[in-house]
Specification:
It is a single chain. By secondary structure, the protein is mainly beta. It has 4 helices and 37 strands. Strands 2-5-6-7-8 form a 5-stranded antiparallel β-sheet, with no helix packed on it. The longest helix is centred in the C-terminal third of the chain and has 21 residues. It holds the Pfam family PQQ_2. This is Outer membrane biogenesis protein BamB.
């Protein structure tokens, strides 16, 4: 499901310095920089979209890979999930959920070098709910710091573990503040500061933004929000040289003080912004994006809700300005991002739109092989676009569209993507010939009027879907629903390794 730059220590992510060759994943939601307790030479990708990650060198990841090339290992994990992995040192942490009623929540640790499953912590869901492929499944990405990993699940569980898998504290947000009222599930990833974990709960019941003490798990503050349906994750951005939590979520864009939870400003001339994270490209500048929805039911709102915004302090107030808009570029789940001065959107049929980030002038519109459910990654002179069906397209950074590589994570990824795009195109043609009633066509669960959902092995929207990734120098870790893959530069003569499936023992470290 989108990273950003807001600190001189992460300036490698900024477009001005990215061109110098120090790189950051733009999939990271910007980041007010690493908390003081995280100052370290340890390689890390500690949060959603790489927030607080160490800089990547331009030649640290391979340009090409395939099921038989540059895959160092792949490991099956318990259950299924859509969250991105996070990395601290030599450990990868990832979450998943298991059971017909989302009965069990898993936090798993793996060895980065070999993919060995180190431990599997399992806990019972606070609010069991029937799981299916049309809503989130363990979509919130955890965060990790030097001492702990913090995880949140759409069933209400919020917990902290040490790096060896021992539970330090746990709480149920549904018991504390009421059960979640959701049709699409919850997917907002965690945000962290030096001493606080921040959770966004946007749903059809009473919504809120919550700050929890890292050490104790106790509430530091809670700010109420209006009810809404949304998958969107917040970001910690720099505005007027100070940190703010910025939430772009189904009907508003809001800025909060991370110390107190006070609402500092709000912008409500937006709609359809239910999935993407606001990504920074300078102090107070960030991208806002919105999707037209499964049946284009939010098309009118989405056309006016993809733009570059700047927020500035004017006296005691914060002023919001739209710098430029695009009415055609509308994403699905992958957030648009800025890299080396250019802004990139990818729509639901795999078309990439490129704009000048300062002026909004269109640079090009070109087609990729697949839509992206993860935010693109900028690295050196390349941009990696992780396709939903497992085909990652690598293009040259800059104003000329040039494909450098097309990489399959799994056999058949290209074919699966082509079939999906064909299905979407055919469904779109049928939509255009059917009167629009504003409702769902009977019997259609695909999110495309007139079309049936694509299946694999009889399972609708089943694995493999390429969801998210994490990266440190020398390793790109990709996640499908039930597996992790590690991509590295491997000499042709070297033999790839494969991890083993872990045995669950109710949360005890293995």
């Amino acid at each position: 499901m989108n990273q950003r730059v807001s600190n001189s220590r992460l300036a490698g992510w900024r477009s001005s310095l990215l061109s110098a060759g120090i790189v950051l994943f733009t999939l990271v939601t910007c980041l007010a920089g690493e908390p003081p307790t995280q100052k370290s030479n340890v390689q890390r990708w500690p949060g959603f979209q790489g927030a607080g990650a160490t800089a990547l060198t331009a030649d640290s990841l391979p340009l090409t890979w395939s099921p038989t090339r540059n895959i160092a290992w792949q490991t099956e994990i318990p259950g299924k999930g859509q969250s991105s992995p996070v990395i601290w040192g030599e450990k990868i942490f990832v979450t998943s959920i298991e059971g017909e009623m989302k009965n069990d929540c898993h936090v798993v640790a793996l060895d980065l070098k070999q993919g060995k499953l180190l431990w599997d912590f399992k806990t019972t869901s606070s609010q069991p709910v029937r799981g299916n492929y049309f809503q989130s499944r363990s979509a919130p990405t955890p965060v990790v710091d030097a001492e702990r990993v913090y995880a949140f699940f759409e069933t209400g569980n919020l917990l902290a573990l040490n790096h060896d898998g021992k539970q330090l504290w746990s709480r149920s947000l549904t018991e504390d503040y009421g059960e979640f009222e959701v049709r699409i599930g919850l997917a907002a990833s965690l945000v962290q500061t030096r001493d606080t974990v921040i959770v966004l709960i946007d749903h059809e019941g009473p919504s809120y933004l919550l700050a929890v003490d890292k050490l104790t798990g106790k509430t530091k503050w809670k700010t109420d929000r209006f009810s809404r349906q949304s998958y969107a994750s917040p970001a910690l951005l720099k505005i007027d040289q100070a940190d703010q939590i910025v939430c772009s979520s189904s009907g508003s864009v809001d800025g909060y003080d991370p110390s107190t939870g006070k609402l500092l400003w709000t912008f409500e001339e937006v709609g359809g912004n239910r999935a993407c994270t606001p990504l920074t490209f300078g102090d107070g500048k960030f991208l806002v994006s919105a999707s037209p929805g499964m049946h284009d039911e939010r098309l009118t709102d989405a056309k006016k809700s993809n733009f570059a915004m700047q927020v500035k302090r004017v006296g005691e107030e914060f002023q919001q300005t739209i710098l430029w808009k695009t009415s055609k570029a509308m994403p699905t789940f992958g957030s648009p991002m800025v890299y080396q001065g250019l802004a990139y959107w990818v729509n639901k049929v795999g078309v990439v739109y490129c704009f000048d980030a300062e002026t909004g002038q269109q640079v090009y519109i070109k087609r990729l092989g697949q839509p992206c459910w993860a935010t693109p990654l900028g690295l050196g002179d390349r941009i990696y676009f992780p396709g939903k069906d497992g085909l990652t397209t690598v293009i040259a950074a800059g104003r000329e569209f040039r494909i450098l590589a097309e990489n399959e994570l799994i056999d058949g990824a290209t074919e699966a993507g082509e079939a999906d795009l064909k299905r979407r195109a055919e469904a779109g043609k049928r939509r255009s010939t059917v009167p629009q009633s504003g409702g769902r066509t009977a019997g259609d669960n695909s999110g495309n009027t007139g079309g049936r959902p694509r299946t694999r092995n009889g399972l609708t929207f089943a694995d493999p879907v390429q969801y998210g990734y994490a990266a440190v120098n020398g390793a790109l870790v990709m996640r499908t629903g039930g597996r992790l893959f590690c991509i590295r530069k491997i000499p042709v003569a070297a033999k790839n390794q494969q991890g083993d499936k872990v045995t669950t023992t109710g949360g005890a470290a293995q």
